[in-house]
Amino acid sequence: MPDNLPANRAPALSRAQRNNVINILRRAAKTEIMPRFRGLNAADIATKSGPDDLVTIADTAAEAMITRALHMAFPGALVIGEEAVSADASLLDKIADAPLCFIIDPIDGTWNYARGLSVFGIILAVTRYGKPAFGLIYDPVMDDWVIADDQGPAQMQHPSGVTRDLQASQGGELAGLSGYVPLYLFDHARRQKLASKLPDFGWVGSLRCSAHEYRMLAQGHVDFVLTESLNPWDHAAGVLICQQAGGYVQMLSGEDYTATLRSGHLLAAPDKATWNRLAKAFKFLNDADL
Questions:
Q1: Residue 151 in contact with residue 132, Cβ under 8 Å?
Q2: pLDDT digits over 253-271, tens only?
């Protein structure tokens, strides 16, 4: 990101633009996602990198609809969706130089969606030169969303107008912490050693859905998220939302997160002290010999 950007620059999106983006996601969910939920047949589901990496007709249709709407509303912006990147990975190289970039996951938790589980969501992030500046995680089932920009609090919002500020948990010692660690996404060489550490915590699991994992973290219902899969559509929005809910998020190496990173381990926690305890417990993940 250029060094000469003013520290007090305007929000990435105005209030009217935020409302427009919310409505775009709600329309896509109502039109393309929810009518197909629990109604997919085998021909509507395909695999990408492996048998558990799924894409459905709803993913592609929703991404196309959202992309078209964003191009109309923000004609100068870069718009990148997960399914578009599956077809052309070079799109990721454009994020670093884009003054305004929309990054979309049309259905995060596709495995759950395709299996009829209602743990999925739409994730949208806005980045400036790779740095998250706006995040929105929408739940199509409940029709509510968590939202934040880099200048205000993270909030839970509902179409009725009910809004509440979000606050990360109090953190604490490892034995009392709960969190999400998707073991299936870690390199096989690290997986066994990582699994052996998990009994040191109060509870560790995975929802197979970054959208709801970050929503839970921002609401203070869990204490941490750790992953080494850095797809920007999974994390750019959630990182910002959790930071604006009072949380502390960095790469395990100590580097700040940006949507341009392709490798490393991302650790989100409710505060810096808890992050430091977690980072010490997971420091072996940085071992190049593993």
A1: no
A2: 999 999 999 999 999 999 9
Residue type, 31: T
Query: Closest Cα partner for 209 from 101, 79, 89, 121?
Result: 121
Helix, strand, or coil (residue 54): strand
The count of other CB atoms within 10 Å of the CB of residue 254 is 8
Residue 99 has pLDDT above 90, yes or no: yes
Crossing angle of the two packed helices 57-73 and 15-28, in degrees rounded to 10: 150
Q: For domain 15-165, is the CATH number 3.30.540.10? A: yes
What is the pLDDT confidence band of residue 8, given thresholds at 50, 70 and 90?
low
Residue range 44-70, pLDDT digits in tens = 999 988 888 899 999 999 999 999 999
Question: What residue spans define the domains of the chain?
Answer: 15-165, 174-285
Tell me the CATH number for domain 174-285.
Answer: 3.40.190.80
CA–CA gap between residue 185 and residue 245 (Å, rounded): 26
Secondary structure E strands in 7-150? 45-47, 54-56, 78-81, 101-108, 121-128, 131-139, 144-149
- 93's CB contacts (< 8 A; 6+ apart) are none
Region for 105 from its dihedrals, namely left if φ exceeds 0, alpha if ψ lies in -120 to 50, beta otherwise: beta
Contact in structure between 147 and 12 (CB atoms under 8 Å): no
Contact 238, 223 (CB under 8 A): no
**Which comes out higher in pLDDT, residue 78 or 289?**
78
Q: What is the mean pLDDT of residues 189-201?
A: 94
Tokens of 238: 């959630």
Residue 288 is predicted with a pLDDT of 65
Question: Half-sphere exposure of residue 166, counting CA atoms within 13 Å on the CB side?
Answer: 31
Whether the Cβ atoms of residue 58 and residue 36 lie closer than 8 Å to each other: yes
CA 15 distance to own-chain centroid: 22
* Cα angle, residue 33 at apex, residues 29 and 34 outer, rounded to 5°: 85
